[in-house]
Amino acid sequence: MNRIDNMVAKLLFTAKVLGRDQLEVIKDHVAQYGGSFHKHALGLGLVSEEPLVSALASALNLSMVALSKMQIDPRTAAKLPGEFCLQNVVFPCAVRDKGQTLWLAMGDPTDGEVRKQARQLSGMSLVRPLVGRPSEILAYVREHYDVQEMQEADPFGGGGVDLSLSEEEEEEEFKIVSAMGGNTLVKHVGGVRVDVSAGPVGQQIPSPVAAPAPAAPAPPPPVIVDPALVATFDRIRGNQQKATTIITQLTRLLMDKGLFSADELNQMMKK
Length: 271
Fold this sequence. Notes:
By secondary structure, the chain is mainly α. About 45% of the residues lie in helices and about 5% in strands.
């Protein structure tokens, strides 16, 4: 983890907001999937917004902002398009320094690229980041922009684990439903094409209509499986491993907190 991540983790641990086991779970996710500590902490539901926003502001030496305590000028909100604000969990809340500086409430103030884009879109000379609560920022975005019908962004800046397939794979593809117990359920296989003359590897598909006995035994046809099917199962296996890792770590955390015992877990799994 980088310096800011370590500072945020230390502040939350010192304040007894997170325990050692919780810190290890979050650090494992950062190491495995990348992204920032604060994004995974929120995404996993291991810390609430208030203490995390406070720790993040302290680590970055930035001011916190409560939008509910500010009088928002509609002309300020118009400095940035609603789509941009929704996607990046930001809200322009004030203009200062004689119109030269835009105060920007951010769910992830560590994102320098978003600040750069905000400066370019607003035409302002400077953008001053402020640390805000993601839920409040999104509420103000919905209130000041016509974005109700738009797909909302991840309040935590997209730092969660993506278990979905790519856009190219998503159409008529396998869908992972459950990875509990090592069983994979699928919705449909419309996108998979297998040669109709072939069956599963090592097994032939019997003819639906009885054919007359051949004059001489014929060698069995070769088993042909579409390479796309093999690639699909490889993608499913990778996504399943991600899901299994998350479930295992969260289960261990809940057991450590005493919410259930190993025996109770075994009984639940048998049902």
